[in-house]
Amino acid sequence: MPIPRNLENFADGFSEPKKKLLYYLKIMQQAGLEELANVMKISRMAVHKHLALLQQRGLVEGIETRGHVGRPRMVYQLTNQSKTIFPKSYSAIASHALDFIERNMGKEAVEKVLRERQSELFDQYYTRLKDLDFDKKVKELARIRDEEGYIAESKKLKSDGKHILLEYNCPIIHIAEKHWEACSTETELFEKLLEAKIETTHRAAKGDLICKFAIKERKEGYL
């Protein structure tokens, strides 16, 4: 599984193996030496060496877990500090601008700005989704978000036919942590685009490792 082309330049200054480890841990969330060695196609010793250096940089941490039987197992995950090396879009400047708007014009003005931005995104996304059936719309939406640096994928559940949209990275995390309206307008955008009912079960801005959306088609259409 290669690093997506739109993320090839993330973590500048790191070697290719370390970039891959950071990327895989972003997707896998937690993984042991054996799992990482398999996906990296290198030895456990090599993985351990790269992990040790990433731990020294404060980007990776090891956690001891205990199953029902056997000895404790060490798994690895990214630290909060690792957020600094993944794509962040225009978040620093935009966050400062929204803070200024809120101080001088109030929360309603912030929401208005974000809704105008989502309206622009709707027009951009809609041109790629309009002629697709529902299943393909969800897949294409995930592809668009992935292109924008969200490291996104979609899955369809066999049990009830719902789709799950997963975003492993949040390029606007600094905005979303301060202005929750960025998250709520995003969900509304997805609902309108897909003509679907969406439940947001996980949010990176609230401390979760991912953003996760449960998507159910509205058979009667979006209202």
Secondary-structure map with pairings?
Elements: H1 16-28, H2 33-40, H3 44-56, E1 60-65, E2 73-78, H4 91-105, H5 107-129, H6 134-150, E3 152-156, E4 163-167, H7 173-178, H8 181-194, E5 196-202, E6 211-217
Antiparallel strand pairs: 1-2, 3-4, 4-6, 5-6
Helix pairs in contact: 2-3, 4-5, 5-8
Summarize this structure briefly.
The chain is 49% helix and 16% strand. It is an alpha+beta fold and 223 residues long.
Q: Can you walk through the features of this model?
A:
The protein is of the alpha+beta class and 223 residues long. It has 2 domains: 5-85, Winged helix-like DNA-binding domain superfamily/Winged helix DNA-binding domain (Arc Repressor Mutant, subunit A); 91-217, 2-Layer Sandwich (Muramoyl-pentapeptide Carboxypeptidase, domain 2). It is built from 8 helices and 6 strands. It has helices spanning 16-28, 33-40, 44-56, 91-105, 107-129, 134-150, 173-178, 181-194, and strands at residues 60-65, 73-78, 152-156, 163-167, 196-202, 211-217. The strands form 2 sheets. It has a 4-stranded antiparallel sheet with strand order 3-4-6-5, covered by helices on one side. A two-stranded antiparallel sheet has the order 1-2. Helix 2 packs across helix 3 and helix 4 crosses helix 5. The radius of gyration is 19 Å and the shape is globular.
CATH class of the largest domain, named Alpha Beta
Number of strands: 6
The main pleated sheet reads as: 4 strands, antiparallel
User: How many separate helices?
Assistant: 8
Rg: 19 Å
Distance between the termini: 40 Å
Specify the CATH architecture of the largest domain.
2-Layer Sandwich
| Overall structural domain count | 2
Low-pLDDT stretches are none
**Structural class, judged by helices and strands?**
alpha+beta
**Oligomer status:** single chain
Q: Averaging pLDDT over every residue, what do you get?
A: 84
Binned, the helix content reads 40-55%
Q: What proportion strand?
A: 15-25%
N-to-C order of helices and strands: HHHEEHHHEEHHEE
CATH topology of the largest domain: Muramoyl-pentapeptide Carboxypeptidase, domain 2
Strand order of the largest sheet: 3-4-6-5
